[in-house]
């Protein structure tokens, strides 16, 4: 998820590195080979990208808000199920 958030604020080169390393699970060496750069260049780029994400997260709380939203959605779903379940049972009695 953090990769998705960062991909909206990172430049294209950072996105390419991030996608190959995190989403496609390539090693530093494999990413380096793909772009014909050193492993150190890939490592440095990923480190800068991660720091960029952490700076945005500290200021905007995007990931924390996303996690909180997921938690609240789960709670709402549980509440709705408790409300709907008796209705379904009652409807079943009415049909039969």
UniProtKB/TrEMBL annotation:
Keywords: DNA-binding. It comes from the Bacteria. Pfam families: UPF0122 (PF04297). One of its GO terms (molecular function) is DNA binding. Gene3D superfamilies: Winged helix-like DNA-binding domain superfamily/Winged helix DNA-binding domain. The keyword Lipoprotein does not apply. The keyword DNA-binding applies. InterPro entries: RNA_pol_sigma_r3/r4-like, UPF0122, UPF0122_fam_protein, WH-like_DNA-bd_sf. Might take part in the signal recognition particle (SRP) pathway. This is inferred from the conservation of its genetic proximity to ftsY/ffh. May be a regulatory protein. Belongs to the UPF0122 family. This is Putative DNA-binding protein. It comes from Weissella viridescens (Lactobacillus viridescens).
